[in-house]
Hints:
The complex is a heterodimer.
Chain A: H1 2-8, E1 18-19, H2 28-40, E2 43-47, H3 52-64, E3 68-72, H4 81-86, E4 95-98, E5 101-104, H5 106-116, H6 127-143, H7 146-154, H8 160-180, H9 193-198, H10 204-212, H11 223-234, H12 236-239, H13 245-266
Parallel strand pairs in A: 2-3
Antiparallel strand pairs in A: 1-3, 2-4, 4-5
Chain B: H1 2-12, E1 27-31, H2 36-48, E2 53-56, H3 65-70, E3 79-82, E4 85-88, H4 90-100, H5 112-138, H6 141-162, H7 175-180, H8 187-194, H9 198-201, H10 203-213, H11 216-221, H12 225-238
Parallel strand pairs in B: 1-2
Antiparallel strand pairs in B: 1-3, 3-4
GO molecular function (chain A): glutathione transferase activity
Enzyme class (chain A): transferase
Domain GST N-terminal (chain A): 41-121
Amino acid sequence: xxxxxxxxxxxxxxxxxxxxxxxxxxxxxxxxxxxxxxxxxxxxxxxxxxxxxxxxxxxxxxxxxxxxxxxxxxxxxxxxxxxxxxxxxxxxxxxxxxxxxxxxxxxxxxxxxxxxxxxxxxxxxxxxxxxxxxxxxxxxxxxxxxxxxxxxxxxxxxxxxxxxxxxxxxxxxxxxxxxxxxxxxxxxxxxxxxxxxxxxxxxxxxxxxxxxxxxxxxxxxxxxxxxxxxxxxxxxxxxxxxxxxxxxxxxxxxxxxxxxxxxxxxx
Amino acid sequence: xxxxxxxxxxxxxxxxxxxxxxxxxxxxxxxxxxxxxxxxxxxxxxxxxxxxxxxxxxxxxxxxxxxxxxxxxxxxxxxxxxxxxxxxxxxxxxxxxxxxxxxxxxxxxxxxxxxxxxxxxxxxxxxxxxxxxxxxxxxxxxxxxxxxxxxxxxxxxxxxxxxxxxxxxxxxxxxxxxxxxxxxxxxxxxxxxxxxxxxxxxxxxxxxxxxxxxxxxxxxxxxxxxxxxxxxxxxxxxxxxx
Lengths: 267, 242
């Protein structure tokens, strides 16, 4: 299973983590096209276990039915030569390797996957709807970035600044709640760019809430988002590349412990 | 006020067809004269030959109802209204223009990989340049020295990305060029506050800046480096920075 692979091989250049599976969408031409793509150029995703941003290219490739090899980096300590070569500017995962091409920045990778491969659309066809999708994907990346995850990880609901943080987070979640408009996904009937961008809220938020004891995404306040989170996490293609909840909680707990220990030393 | 004078000059330089309201394409741009983000859109519209109505938002005086209605989430310019529907965020507006007007000259290449590279560098400019530049003129002492070091690194990185090409887009002025060109008017201020010389730090970028300035779309959209420097002085006064 994928989880076993992740635990057994924390280092880089894992040749054995090739994923092969049957695309959910049938259609002879679709299969042949993707088979040709598979035979012509290898696709690899450089990521690390539990990476919110690394999930995005994986789910995008699975939605398109594109087989890929997963290369797991041991971050943050050991950045491999391969990573530094293919993302010299930001030195971050994820990186998509397609043949001899490397693409960086998760949302840019998702748009590349949408344009380079046949299969179900990840962005809408209509120009105005595309602009709207890009807007909300960017909104998510601005408002639910590292500061958000750090704050929710460390929160215990006590201090005033945490109260302000929670107020701001709820305001932003409400805006997203409003974007679902009775649909299963932000993309309508199928998973699209905004769903992929919001995927952090479908698995990682739950893990962070468990660790901090703060319940941000409640059914009462955000019924549509809660329904969406279940739909997303239950989707066949997303499910296969979302980290196991227990393992994720364990990893975040370890990182939080380390962070608090460092903060103590600095005091 | 100095700003009103700028506004009038900008309106006089509006490339829209004489007498046409919103142009034939129904485009209205909510903008602020010196904003590099707004200028990206002005440049793109000019490169594409798309007529539009320019609507100045006097941000120094506050945010108008019109702006708050058009961009309730971020309350920022630029906003492009197309037949009344708002598109927000400058790079999203640029991509919208690509999609909505496929017959107009394209800023993005057609190859998916080339497009991804263009998006990457436009995103890099977006993430790095304005924020670092702001810290350069807002801060003093050690934090300013840090901002200076960062700015040099950013300019050197962009210098390397440009390489020996005339434009980031290659032979043609493209998406990254439109995204970064407005900042050429800010280089002078960065040089003064950061105490460095652009031709020494990033000679290819310096040459590229001159090349951009020779294009009508850029020349008509940007204000002089001196005006930008004066504007920064105004901002500092407003924020009570010495």
